[in-house]
Amino acid sequence: MSLNTGSVTDRRRATDWQDTAACARPNINVEVFHAREGDKPSVTQARSICGHCPSRIACLTTAFTEGDQWGIRAGLTPRQRTAHLKKANGNITRAVADALNDTAVLLKNLYWQHTETRGRHRVWLDHRDWVNVRGKPYTINRLAWIALNGHDPHGHVTRTCNVERCIAQGCLTDGTTRKQART
To answer: Residue 159's beta-bridge partner residues?
Structure first.
């Protein structure tokens, strides 16, 4: 309580990935996430919960960043997390992408590493017009679309502004958004 007003001090924190995690839902037995690898039923139950979790990427990234060696995180045991991090030579982004089989993690990382904000625009700074990720070529527009939207575009991605190499979310359109704009 505040001594001056008698009101309760606002101690809320900003929403983060833990608030939307599947393990934070009511009626979830959180003990299954602390199961040992030999406890197959608990590990299986934890993995089934993690498999539908919208926070898997953030959970696994945090586990790698914090060096968490306990429990199930993003459906992976400590041994599995260690193996993925070792295979990725300590590169957390690559380890997360490999462990979750999610190329969008790599594309998002590339987007933020190779762009800068200029007013309401986000400009690609790299000299390349396309990049090869896991053997697949991506134009910078397509890379940005997937990084920002989390899914493949429908058709070609085009820029709606005339700022050279701008790949800001509001300046990109795919087939679906162009069709919606016409109707």
So the answer is: 172
| pLDDT reported for residue 11 | 58
Specify the DSSP class assigned to residue 29: -
Q: What's the pTM? A: 0.74
The pLDDT of residue 25 is above 60: yes
Helix (H) or strand (E) holding 172: strand 172-173
User: In 62-151, at which residue ranges do the beta strands (DSSP E only) sit?
Assistant: 115-118, 121-124, 130-133, 136-139
Let me know: does 61 contact 84? Beta carbons within 8 Å: no
Structure-block tokens of residue 138: 């991506």
Q: How far is CA 95 from CA 58, 84, 102, in A?
A: 12, 5, 10
Torsion angles phi and psi, residue 165, rounded to 5 = 65, 20
- Tell me how far apart the alpha carbons of residues 63 and 61 are, in angstroms, rounded to a whole number: 5
CA distance 161 to 146: 19
Q: Identity (one letter) of the amino acid at 162?
A: N
CB atoms within 10 A of CB 174: 19
Q: Which helix (H) or strand (E) holds 59?
A: helix 56-66
pLDDT digits (tens, 9 = 90+) for 30-76: 899 998 888 899 999 999 999 989 999 999 999 999 998 888 999 99
